[in-house]
Design a protein that fits this description.
Length: 183
């Protein structure tokens, strides 16, 4: 008798769970990714390679079709198939060889931030399998080491402007990190 009650209770809970989960709908995000700045941390490190500031930047993202990230073959194939090839047909650099765009900025004597002459653009891997096309949200973190010396000197106040692109080449909004001081 106890076994039948236990099975009946279990079946009721399973049915209730299935009913509740069928009422949940997937979030409705646009297919163009959007990002929000979450945090930036900086830590002074001295090791066998020297002294540098280890910086970690985290943004949250939302994307309606989840087509974020590049496969290894998208940009390591010797033929560099479009649209992720290194060079465009006119031999200019292809912006979409990367999908994570990170521009360093330094505060000048007037107190405003200016772009530095280089960037830290890079790639992040696929976040979902290719056969899944559904809304996705989460966090992306990017680590970089800022070596003291040109262009970063002790006491410099820097921040970063960043955005991402999805596989369909839709670019997200741009966000700025909080400023940090190089130690």
């Amino acid at each position: 008798m106890l076994t039948i009650r236990t099975l009946a209770l279990g079946a009721s809970l399973l049915l209730a769970g299935a009913t509740v989960s069928s009422c949940l709908t997937a979030p409705d995000y646009p297919d163009t990714p959007s990002i929000e700045f979450e945090k930036i941390t900086s830590q002074r490190v001295t090791d066998s390679s020297g002294t540098y500031d280890r910086v970690k930047i985290t943004v949250s993202y939302r994307d309606g079709d989840g087509d974020l990230g590049l496969n290894t073959g998208d940009n390591t194939d010797p033929d560099y198939q479009p649209p992720y090839q290194y060079l465009n047909p006119d031999n200019t650099l292809n912006k979409f060889y990367d999908n994570y765009f990170l521009q360093a900025q330094r505060r000048n004597t007037a107190g405003t931030f200016e772009d530095l002459s280089f960037n830290y653009n890079s790639r992040f891997p696929r976040l979902m399998p290719e056969d899944r096309n559904e809304p996705k949200r989460g966090d992306l973190s990017f680590d970089l080491n800022l070596i003291q010396g040109a262009p970063f000197f002790s006491g410099d106040v820097v921040r970063f402007r960043l955005s991402i692109a999805d596989r369909a080449l839709n670019e997200s909004n741009e966000v700025f990190t909080d400023p940090i001081t190089i130690q």
